[in-house]
Amino acid sequence: MCKSRIEKAAKSEGAVSADWSTKTKILTVTFDPSKTSVDAFSKKIAAAGHDTERYRADDKAYDALDSCCKYERKN
C-alpha cells in the first residue's frame, strides 16, 4: 500500500513515471522540470503521510497510514 500511495502522490504532482523501491526506500521519478519540481513532489508525498528529506509529514496524515506503512520517524 505504501508503494502505491507514494507513487500516486508523485504522479498527481506531474510525474511521468514514479517507482518506489520498497527495498531501498528510494523514489525514482521522471518529470518535466518546466512543469513541476522535486520540492513539489516532496510536499505532495509529505501530505500523503510520508516524511521526505525536505518535509516532515503532518502527524495527522502519518497517523492515518495503515500500520504496515508506519516507520520510525526522526524527531
3D architecture notes:
With 75 residues, the chain is α+β, with helices and mostly antiparallel strands. Helices cover 35% and strands 13% of the residues. It contains 3 helices and 2 strands; from the N terminus they run αββαα. It has helices at residues 2-12, 38-47, 59-63, and strands at residues 17-21, 26-30. It is globular, with a radius of gyration of 12 Å. The model has no long low-confidence stretch (mean pLDDT 94).
Topology:
Layout: H1 2-12, E1 17-21, E2 26-30, H2 38-47, H3 59-63
Antiparallel strand pairs: 1-2
- Total strand segments: 2
Euclidean distance between termini CA atoms: 24 Å
What is the global morphology? Answer: globular
* Percent of residues in beta strands: 5-15%
Total DSSP helices: 3
Write the H/E string, N to C.
Answer: HEEHH
The averaged pLDDT comes out at: 94
Work out the radius of gyration. Answer: 12 Å
Q: Classify the secondary structure makeup into a structural class.
A: alpha+beta
Helix content range: 25-40%
Q: Report the biggest beta sheet as strand number plus sense, adding barrel if it closes.
A: 2 strands, antiparallel
Low-confidence stretches: none
Output the strand order for the largest sheet: 1-2
Short summary:
With 75 residues, the protein is an alpha+beta fold. It is built from 3 helices and 2 strands. 35% of the residues lie in helices and 13% in strands.
Describe this protein with a few key phrases.
75 residues; alpha+beta; two-stranded antiparallel sheet; 2 strands
